[in-house]
């Protein structure tokens, strides 16, 4: 018994140089069973030293997944940083190239919004051409007002006879008394339809005055600049009805538009970034 224990001890102490420096006892002997556990532990330790992450092991698979996750996180972070920098550049780039005509997008809203925006267009020359009117797909009243406005304009001024205008329809981003949760979904849907339209038109100027439809349009125009396709000037004119606070669209576009025009001095005092020109409609 003592000889067997000595053989086992000798094997363990000399295991760092050679795992089999002593002739192993027969497999069926008690000495073999006593020496088997230390020998396997030593072999496992040596294997972990030589192959710390053996292919196919659970540790190796976990490490591979972690590498992929960290790589994706780093890539996503780089994209976010790039988009934020591009957004800053686009919002702070106010340079305008002189040109003979400007392609204009006008966002029409139901009721008073359309009336106000058409009054504003009366003071614009025929150089703002072609004009693309964008309205909600359920807004028939605005379509009639726009067609009547363009017909009267052509009859008054023969130089505008050849001025082109187009009507485009997109899904309404928010209905009256619509819940906020469903508004987010409908706005995303409206933006999904708006971006291909804005990409196709590639306007020089977007002019709007308050309807919820203008938010996805302005964001789509902003994306053209972020993606390096074209810098689009966004001008938002707050409704004359807004005396003390901006509308929800105005509060959003205060940070996204190039110029936000207010028609009351109280709004200028409350929102210094805005532009006050007096009553313009």
Automatic annotation (TrEMBL):
**One GO cellular component, as annotated:** UDP-N-acetylglucosamine transferase complex
Q: What Pfam families does its record include?
A: Alg14 (PF08660)
Query: What is the protein's membrane topology class?
Result: Single-pass membrane protein
Any GO BP annotation: dolichol-linked oligosaccharide biosynthetic process
**Where does the record say this protein resides?**
Endoplasmic reticulum membrane
GO molecular-function annotation terms? Answer: N-acetylglucosaminyldiphosphodolichol N-acetylglucosaminyltransferase activity
Q: Give the transmembrane ranges.
A: 66-89
Key words, A-Z: Endoplasmic reticulum, Membrane, Transmembrane, Transmembrane helix
Give the matching Gene3D superfamilies: Glycogen Phosphorylase B
UniProt subunit comment: Forms with ALG13 the active heterodimeric UDP-N-acetylglucosamine transferase complex.
Q: Which family does it belong to?
A: Belongs to the ALG14 family.
> PANTHER family, per this entry?
GLYCOSYL TRANSFERASE-RELATED, UDP-N-ACETYLGLUCOSAMINE TRANSFERASE SUBUNIT ALG14 HOMOLOG
Which named protein is this?
A: UDP-N-acetylglucosamine transferase subunit ALG14
Lineage at the top is: Eukaryota, Metazoa, Chordata, Craniata, Vertebrata
């Amino acid at each position: 018994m003592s000889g067997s224990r000595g053989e086992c001890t000798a094997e363990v102490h000399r295991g760092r140089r050679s795992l089999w420096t002593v002739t192993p006892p027969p497999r069926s002997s008690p000495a073999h069973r006593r020496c088997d556990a230390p020998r396997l532990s030593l072999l496992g330790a040596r294997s972990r030293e030589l192959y710390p992450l053996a292919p196919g092991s659970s540790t190796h698979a976990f490490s591979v997944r972690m590498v992929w996750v960290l790589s994706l996180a780093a890539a996503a972070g780089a994209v976010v940083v790039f988009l934020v920098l591009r957004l800053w550049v686009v919002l702070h780039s106010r340079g305008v190239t002189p040109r003979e005509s400007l392609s204009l997008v006008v966002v029409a809203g139901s009721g008073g919004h359309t009336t106000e925006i058409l009054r504003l267009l009366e003071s614009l020359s025929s150089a703002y051409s072609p004009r693309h009117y964008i309205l909600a797909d359920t807004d028939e009243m605005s379509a009639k007002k726009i067609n009547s406005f363009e017909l009267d304009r052509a009859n008054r001024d023969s130089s505008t006879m050849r001025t082109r205008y187009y009507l485009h329809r997109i899904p309404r981003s928010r209905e009256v008394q619509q819940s906020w949760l469903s508004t987010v979904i409908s706005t995303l849907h409206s933006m999904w339809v708006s971006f291909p339209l804005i990409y196709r038109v590639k306007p020089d100027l977007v002019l709007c005055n308050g309807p919820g439809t203008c938010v996805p349009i302005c964001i789509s125009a902003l994306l053209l600049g972020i993606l390096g396709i074209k810098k689009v000037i966004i001008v938002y004119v707050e409704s004359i009805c807004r005396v003390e606070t901006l509308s929800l669209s105005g509060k959003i576009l205060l940070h996204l538009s190039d110029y936000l025009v207010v028609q009351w001095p109280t709004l200028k005092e409350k929102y210094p970034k805005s532009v006050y020109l007096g009553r313009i409609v």
